[in-house]
């Protein structure tokens, strides 16, 4: 991992997370003691970012399983599924969450008895986290090869260690290029409404001493047209078989602007974000969050009372706009 902070750490009977809603002002750690608290942490974005959500959900299920007292195997499995469904219901868009739940379901169901199931569920959760860390390490390595000395790179949302529990996806690539001594410049979008760019990406880039400038989302077109931007690189929440990619709201606009200005547009994502069942992005469920996140900033109302606001948290970029996918197994074009 890159940062000297812990995104998600399993403590044996609790889950330690950094509260991402309090960053950058406060570096606060929370110890979550049951699966309801983990579900709340995911819903409230204390832990966020597709791979980190998957890892947290997996350990959330482990916590839920630790509290099941029944010695009857059938009853144990019934209660297991109630726990797993609560975690699966927290956020709808990131594939990693459902990948984690499906893997733990398979581990629970394959076990011949309760003790074997408990052990297999914990082992699978730990494996998922280890795989995410390793995948993001490889993504950072492979992606950094694409970046040239002197490049300016635009990125969106937060895709660093905070979002992955590992090295980061898009931001991992950027940090690795900087570590290799490439003299890069980053343009980081603030990412309204919750400002994952302004709060979290700026915090992580600052910690890594990567030269960057923060811009508002609406400045992206200006910089892509007027400034020399060599590459846009973002993460992903779910990728369909044809390459259609759901990511933080605003990604689609960036991809279109990048295409209009002939700037390569890359997605960096581990294989856990690819949805093997989904032919196109049309069926990706887009999370609709509270309009208060749009009408308010820092808890203060900025819009008049009594108005309607929309708040889709993600959008889908058609695969045709994506120059390449940086994954742990290589850089490829889809389909
Ligand atoms: C490696 S993280 C990729 C995505 O999960 C990230 O870009 C993103 O959209 C996160 O959204 P968030 O709502 O903050 O969970």
TrEMBL record:
It comes from the Bacteria. Keywords: Amino-acid biosynthesis, Isomerase, Methionine biosynthesis. Its EC number is 5.3.1.23. Pathway: Amino-acid biosynthesis; L-methionine biosynthesis via salvage pathway; L-methionine from S-methyl-5-thio-alpha-D-ribose 1-phosphate: step 1/6. Pfam families: IF-2B (PF01008). The active site is at residue 237. It catalyses: 5-(methylsulfanyl)-alpha-D-ribose 1-phosphate = 5-(methylsulfanyl)-D-ribulose 1-phosphate. InterPro entries: IF-2B-related (IPR000649), IF-M1Pi (IPR005251), IF_2B-like_C (IPR042529), Initiation_fac_2B_a/b/d (IPR011559), M1Pi_N (IPR027363), NagB/RpiA_transferase-like (IPR037171). Substrate binds at residues 48-50, 91, 196, 247-248. It is an enzyme of class 5 (isomerase). SUPFAM superfamilies: NagB/RpiA/CoA transferase-like (SSF100950). The record marks 157 as: Transition state stabilizer. The keyword Isomerase applies. GO terms for molecular function: S-methyl-5-thioribose-1-phosphate isomerase activity. Catalyzes the interconversion of methylthioribose-1-phosphate (MTR-1-P) into methylthioribulose-1-phosphate (MTRu-1-P). Belongs to the EIF-2B alpha/beta/delta subunits family. MtnA subfamily. This is Methylthioribose-1-phosphate isomerase.
């Amino acid at each position: 991992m890159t940062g000297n902070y812990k995104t998600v750490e399993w403590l044996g009977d609790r889950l330690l997370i950094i509260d991402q809603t309090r960053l950058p002002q406060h570096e606060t750690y929370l110890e979550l003691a049951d699966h309801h608290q983990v579900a709340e942490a995911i819903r409230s974005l204390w832990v966020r970012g597709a791979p980190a959500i998957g890892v947290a959900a997996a350990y959330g299920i482990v916590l839920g399983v630790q509290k099941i007292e029944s010695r009857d195997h059938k009853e144990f499995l019934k209660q297991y599924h109630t726990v797993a469904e609560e975690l699966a219901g927290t956020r709808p868009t990131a594939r990693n969450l459902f990948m984690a739940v499906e893997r733990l379901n398979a581990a629970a169901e394959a076990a011949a008895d309760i003790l074997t199931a408990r052990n297999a569920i914990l082992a699978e959760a730990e494996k998922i986290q280890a795989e995410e860390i390793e995948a993001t390490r490889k993504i950072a390595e492979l992606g950094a090869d694409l970046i040239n000395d002197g490049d300016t790179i635009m990125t969106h949302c937060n895709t660093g260690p905070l979002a992955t529990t590992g090295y980061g996806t898009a931001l991992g690539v950027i940090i690795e290029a900087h570590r290799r001594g490439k003299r890069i410049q980053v343009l980081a979008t603030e990412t309204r409404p919750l400002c994952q760019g302004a709060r979290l990406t700026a915090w992580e880039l600052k910690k890594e001493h990567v030269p960057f400038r923060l811009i508002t989302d609406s400045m992206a077109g200006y910089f892509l047209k007027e400034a020399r931007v060599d590459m846009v690189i973002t993460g992903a929440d779910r990728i369909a078989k044809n390459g259609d990619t759901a990511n933080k709201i605003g990604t689609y606009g960036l991809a279109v602007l990048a295409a209009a200005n002939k700037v390569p547009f890359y997605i960096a994502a581990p294989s856990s974000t690819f949805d093997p069942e989904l032919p196109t992005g049309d069926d990706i469920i887009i999370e609709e969050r509270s309009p208060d996140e749009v009408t308010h900033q820092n808890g203060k109302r900025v819009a008049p009372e009594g108005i309607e606001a929309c708040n889709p948290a993600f959008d889908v970029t058609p695969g045709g706009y994506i120059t390449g996918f940086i994954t742990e197994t290589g850089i490829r074009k889809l389909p």
